[in-house]
Specification:
103 residues, alpha+beta, Alpha-Beta Plaits, five-stranded mixed β-sheet, 3 helices
Length: 103
């Protein structure tokens, strides 16, 4: 299989990404803005605050769609609040029906 074909199929593959955001990400509308951004993408998942001050995002969708969704989160004004962003990629579990904020 050619490199170009492999690149195409990797972009068409459904994936799961778990992202931990740190910085000034709680109490500033981060979860609400993330949910708002999700409406423009074919992604499912959740966003929630963690007790240690970070925000966790879990999302599933096409790999390219997830990358663009994450960029949209940064570009909508939240990027300046993010000090660090740690991501973990895996196979999707198909457990979500939409995108929600978990309290």
């Amino acid at each position: 299989m050619s490199r170009l074909v492999r690149a195409f199929w990797s972009q068409m593959k459904h994936r799961r990404v778990q992202v931990f955001y740190s910085g000034r990400v709680q109490g500033v509308g981060f979860r609400y803005q993330t949910k708002r951004q999700a409406t423009g993408f074919e992604v499912t998942g959740l966003v929630r605050n963690l007790a240690d001050g970070r925000v966790e995002l879990i999302a599933e969708g096409l790999e390219q769609e997830l990358a663009e969704f994450r960029q949209a989160i940064r570009d909508c004004g939240l990027g300046s609040m993010i000090r660090d962003e740690v991501d973990f990629w895996s196979e999707p579990l198909g457990e979500f029906r939409g995108f929600e904020i978990v309290r």
